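We now fix the convention by which a protein and its fold are recorded. Think of the row as the fold of the chain written in a discrete alphabet. Here is one such record, which you should read through line by line.
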Amino acid sequence: MRLIATALLLSAALLGGCATSTTASPNTALLVAPERGNGDLGLVIERESGSIGVLDTTARTRLGTVDGLGDLSHASVVFSRDGALAYVFGRDGALTKVNLRTGRIEGRVMQAGNSIGGAISTDGTLVVAQNYQPGGIKVFDARTLELLADVPAVVDGKASRVVGLADIPRNRFIYSLFDAGQIWIADLADPRKPQLTKFENIGKQPYDALISPDGRTYIAGLFGEDGLAKIDLWAPQLKVERILPGYGKGEQPLPVFKMPHLRGWSIAGKHAFLPAIGRHEVLVVDTDTWKEVGRIPVAGQPVFVMARPDGRQVWVNFAVPDYDTVQVIDTQTRRIVHSLKPGKAVLHMEFTPRGEAVWISSRDAGHVTVVDTASFRTLAVLPAHSPSGIFFSSRAARMGL
């Protein structure tokens, strides 16, 4: 009788699991053993096939593939607090919830016509998408993907594309309106009734933005004019300041083949390292004064300028024609200490949590390269189909990513 009861309980559990599952990818086997945690998982976007490769960053292996994610030509990812769930924002406006442990799609909504990213709230309960078409942001329940709020970005009767969305403390989100030249903060203490704070006339065409790792400083790059817009979120009275005049469109002696992503900026110690738009340089900025204090010549037009977690190195990749090259800057001497060519069309880099290795995607070479950041030795090369963004579950514990 005891054996029969146990069998019945097991059958009920299995049936219950089937009843609560949603759309699944063809890969239904567990990718991660039940006794393992999620802290060293990751994924790589495979842009042309609409799939993601699930990664084990400790063993430096690929665990499996999840298909059916649509147009990933421009995709970004945020993670649940436990690092097991990835929320993928696709160019086609889809928001897809993927369980990295099972390799299954647990939910998917077509929430816009054109989406370029999103963020997750401080407490992990809300996922917010930023949209080009129709513009604005949408707020979803992270567990069910139920739409909780639709916040249009409309100024003077015209819809604006939204860029630079970042989470900030206490379930708030900050973002920029490209077409309206504004920055908005949405307080989602009650996610069904967002409270908005708006900053007008912050500059022409904010094209991207970032939040500092401590959540204090929000900076929007301005495509339509020189300089950047900054808000100190710790200030008693919030206001927009203009910083770094001369950094921007008006000082381009060279054609810009690819606009730098501000999320690729790095803050290491008391300095920020920025890609100089239209120049073969990395700018060094004092984060106390937000004034330029140096420039570092590099191989080409930098796209991502990314600091190793300890801040001792900055790794740089480039736009065409130098997109097969990566260079390493020592932040103490501000000199190039190493150059490498991991493959054609380097699109993204991601450091392991403590920075002993960096993973580099090479789209046209069809692989991801894992490099030791001390010896610069190649540790592994993993095949991938047109790889672009690499995202590790350790991002779950960091703000603004």
In short: Confidence is low (pLDDT under 50) at residues 1-27. The radius of gyration is 21 Å.
